[in-house]
Design brief:
Elements lengths: L1 H19 L6 H5 L22 E2 L2 H10 L17 E3 L5 E3 L10 H15 L4 E12 L4 E11 L8 E6 H14 L1 H4 L15 H19 L2 H4 L2 H20 L3 H18 L5 H16 L3 H14 L9 H15 L4 H12 L10 H7 L4
Antiparallel strand pairs: 1-4, 2-3, 4-5, 5-6
Helix pairs in contact: 9-10, 9-11, 10-11, 11-12, 12-13, 13-14
Length: 366
């Protein structure tokens, strides 16, 4: 019953907000709707997206259809007045206090709203081109697009970012079409131009097309989970961070490992082997920079992921690093020591195990 009342109250608020607008209000927004910006750009904009820069998974879409327009996360909280209006099923407006059998007070509705707001907000991953710069090298010239990965409804203090050029997107498009030809049939991609590649108009249209391209890919379950799609985002960062770590540039490497961590977190792949390698990189760099508490935390997170695994190439190195760091920072290390003892009894020669840093440097990233 409470859920139904809350649902109707949201519809009522949405309806009142629409009626309170002046007759001529909102003209500017209507004169230039989001979809109208795309009408003259037929190269690479997917019809399915219709101007939307983000897309939910299929499961999220079904939930949103059930919730209806009134469940928008942009709704204001219910008003403070005790006679807050709510809509009936046939469109008639009555007050909550006057509703037959209504036992919830406005204050209770407000509390219910606050509790349910987080669960009702759809979680989407937005792809936003925040800047594009023309890069000139000795024998080439290209546009580098900087893209933020943003979870809607949340504030990211340190956003996950990538910087890619047209050829990177083109390679991703080609690889995905080879493997997912049916799914990719409805996905448009901006074609190459022989001229005017560096004009502001072309760069703006391509920026929007790339946002929609990535959003459309992310909306398809099989593509969203594929190595081709995932590694487009974080593999270059992993490779760069590994090179920086090998050359002893730990501060620069730490920032790159951290961005790779955020990218994998946004993409929902925090249990993969790549993610464990990322935690190893963070632990090594933190330790080299004498940030021992942070390094210890990275080892703990990795060991939690490895809890259910009896054997993993990184299990022994993480356990040894965790014991060493726990002793340094004064944390409990008994559990890790017990797990190391179990590995010894299972016949694992821990003396021959590489260190976490050696594992990190030797790992092939292709």
């Amino acid at each position: 019953m409470a859920a139904r009342i809350l649902h109707r109250l949201r519809h009522a608020l949405a309806g009142e907000a629409g009626r309170e607008e002046p007759a001529g209000g909102g003209g500017e927004a209507e004169d230039c709707p989001e979809s109208s910006e795309l009408e003259d750009d037929t190269e690479g904009l997917s019809t399915r997206l219709s101007g939307t820069l983000s897309f939910t998974s299929h499961e999220d879409e079904e939930e949103e259809e059930e919730e209806g327009d009134g469940a928008s996360e942009e709704l204001e909280e219910p008003p403070q007045a005790p006679g807050a209006a709510a809509g009936t099923e046939d469109g008639e407006w009555i007050s909550v206090a006057e509703r037959p059998g209504g036992s919830l007070l406005t204050r209770q509705l407000q509390e219910l709203w606050r509790r349910s707001r987080g669960s009702l907000a759809p979680q989407r991953l937005l792809f936003e081109v925040t800047s594009a710069s023309v890069v000139s090298e000795r024998s080439s010239k290209y546009v580098l697009y900087t893209i933020y990965l943003i979870r809607s409804g949340q504030f990211d203090k340190a956003p996950a970012t990538i910087a890619r050029r047209y050829s990177d997107f083109e390679q991703l498009n080609r690889r995905l079409r080879c493997r997912f030809s049916c799914d990719m049939a409805s996905i448009a991609f901006p074609r190459k131009r022989l001229r005017r590649n560096f004009t502001a108009e072309t760069i703006a249209k391509r920026s929007r097309a790339f946002e929609q391209f990535l959003s459309h890919l992310h909306s398809i379950d099989e593509i969203r989970r594929s190595p081709e799609f995932l590694e487009f985002f974080f593999l270059p960062d992993l490779q760069a961070a590994q090179r920086l770590t090998c050359t002893g540039m730990y501060r620069e490497a730490l920032a790159t490992w951290a961005n790779a961590y955020r990218l994998q977190d946004r993409l929902g792949v925090c249990s993969s082997g790549r993610f464990l390698l990322t935690l190893a990189g963070l632990a090594v760099c933190h330790q080299e920079l004498d940030q021992l508490s942070e390094a210890h935390g990275c080892c703990e997170q990795a060991l939690q992921l490895l809890e259910a695994q009896g054997s993993h190439p990184l299990l022994g190195p993480f356990l040894q690093a965790h014991v060493h760091l726990a002793w340094k920072v004064g944390k409990d290390k008994r559990r890790s020591e017990a797990r190391l003892q179990d590995l010894r009894e299972a016949g694992l020669a821990l003396q021959q195990q590489p260190s976490l840093k050696e594992c990190l440097i030797k790992e092939p990233l292709e």
